[in-house]
């Protein structure tokens, strides 16, 4: 197909959302942004749950998926695998190299992202400031930055070349700004971050819905927003 239809990206400006907007920009793939206002509770609407059963964004609909049929994909890591495989970019062909990319992508999904998310929740958004929880998650976030710093000591990227693993980690390293965690002690992470953040495609991905960042302030004052984010069905949202 000469001009494939654009991918529909279901998005809100969070570290997990940025993974996909950055990857789409890097791939040069046309896409439409469908805002899922997680503060208003859009993630619980029936039409979104049909795309993302877990009620989390990001998610995509690719109108031109396998066998030329539409496909929906939820979970940011699964979306990255799908897009990188489809376009044969940012995910190497060698099994050994793919395994390394998988390791660092899974590391982000199971460690850097969840620990960073909990650190932000307890230090910034929780109505009750619990010193143990703040110390526990911020310390673990810093430990993971140290792990990443060691990996980047003698290399430009997390694996042999720029990959979806780097893109997945970028937003969660940027989250250090919210946590007021300096990257100065992690010189190799800082070097890596500055290199990636200077890429025009990364900047474009990070600038999607930039004007909505002020919405974060509502979390501190709006009880409905807090309920939608942290209390609905007893589960936190992205």
Descriptive overview:
A four-stranded mixed beta sheet has the order 2-1-3-4, with helices on one face. Helix content is 53%, strand content 8%. The chain folds into two domains: 7-89 and 208-234, Glutaredoxin, CATH 3.40.30; 95-199, Glutathione S-transferase Yfyf (Class Pi), Chain A, domain 2. A hairpin with an 8-residue loop joins strand 3 and strand 4 (71-74). The chain contains eleven helices and four strands. Mean pLDDT is 91; it is low at 233-238. The chain has helices at 15-27, 46-49, 76-87, 95-125, 131-151, 164-174, 176-179, 187-197, 200-206, 218-221, 223-231; strands at 7-11, 31-35, 59-62, 71-74. The longest helix has 31 residues, at 95-125. Helix 1 runs parallel beside helix 3 (76-87), helix 1 (15-27) crosses helix 6 (164-174) and helix 4 runs antiparallel to helix 5 (131-151).
Number of domains: 2
- Count of separate DSSP helical elements: 11
The low-pLDDT segments are 233-238
Level of helix content?
40-55%
Please give the alpha-carbon distance between the first and last residues. 35 Å
Query: Got a strand count?
Result: 4
Identify the strand order in the major beta sheet.
2-1-3-4
Level-2 CATH architecture of the largest domain: 3-Layer(aba) Sandwich
Q: Which geometry do the CA atoms define?
A: globular
Radius of gyration, taken over Cα atoms and rounded to an integer in Å: 18 Å
Please name the CATH topology of the largest domain: Glutaredoxin
Largest sheet at a glance?
Answer: 4 strands, mixed
Class of secondary structure makeup: alpha+beta
Report the average pLDDT across residues: 91
Order of helices and strands: EHEHEEHHHHHHHHH
Query: Which homologous superfamily in CATH is the superfamily of the largest domain?
Result: Glutaredoxin
Proportion of beta-strand residues: 5-15%
Q: What is the CATH level 1 assignment of the largest domain?
A: Alpha Beta
Protein name: Glutathione S-transferase N-terminal domain-containing protein
Organism: Agaribacter flavus
Family: Belongs to the GST superfamily.
Pfam families: GST_C, GST_N
